[in-house]
Amino acid sequence: MPKTLLQYGVSFALIYLSLTLGNWIQSLLAIAIPGSIFGMLILFALLVSGITPVNWVKPGCHFFIRYMMLLFVPISVGLMDHFDLMINNAWAILASAIGGSLIVLVILSLVLNKFMNRIEPQASHKEHH
Q1: What per-residue confidence (pLDDT) applies to 124?
Q2: How many Å apart are CA 43 and CA 9, to the nearest integer?
Q3: Which residue has the higher pLDDT, 127 or 6?
Q4: Angle, CA of 74, 75 and 81, to the nearest 5°
Q5: Residue 42 CB: number of other CB atoms within 10 A?
Q6: CA distance 80 to 115
Q7: How far apart are CA 32 and CA 35, in angstroms?
Q8: How far apart are CA 113 and CA 105, in angstroms?
Q9: pLDDT grade, residue 72 (50/70/90)?
Q10: Whether 26 contacts 35, CB under 8 Å
Q11: Overall average pLDDT of the 41-64 stretch
C-alpha cells in the first residue's frame, strides 16, 4: 500500500510539474498556445529521452484516463449554460470545423503524396540492381 501511494505521488508530481513548467513557459512567451500543451510536450520529451521512465508516470495517467469523464462535466455544464450562443453561431462553428478538417486533410494528402513519390523511385531503383 505505501509503495502504491508513493507511485501515485511521484506520478502526479511529475504530471503537475510538467503542467506548471508549461504554464510558466506560456506566461514567459506570452503567446496564445496554452501552457498545458507546453506541459505535455515537456512530459513527452522527458519520456522519449528516457530521463523519466514510463512506469513513473503510468499510475497517474491510468487514474486520469479512468476518471476522464468526470473532467468533462464542467465543460458540459458550460456548454449548457451557453447553448443559445452556440445555436446562434452554429453555422460558423460547423464551417470552421469542416473547413479546418478539410484543410488538414488536403495538406496531409499532399505531403504524403510527395513523400510516397520520393520513396517509390528509390525502391524501384533498388529492385532493378
Answers
A1: 60
A2: 16
A3: 6
A4: 90
A5: 19
A6: 44
A7: 9
A8: 12
A9: confident
A10: yes
A11: 92
Is the pTM here over 0.85, yes or no?
A: no
CB neighbour class for 113 (10 Å; exposed up to 12, middle 13-18, buried from 19): exposed
Q: How far apart are CA 12 and CA 19, in angstroms?
A: 10
The three cell numbers of residue 108 are 496531409
Per the CB < 8 A criterion, the answer to whether 54 and 44 are in contact is: no
User: Which residues does 19 contact at the CB level (< 8 Å), separation at least 6?
Assistant: 35, 36, 39
Q: Coil, strand or helix: which one is 30? A: coil
Q: At residue 59, what is the residue type?
A: P
pLDDT of 119 > 70? The answer is yes
Closest alpha carbon to 38 in 57, 17, 56, 58: 17
Question: pLDDT-based confidence at 67, cuts 50/70/90?
Answer: confident
How many residues are recorded in the chain?
129
CA distance 82 to 120: 52
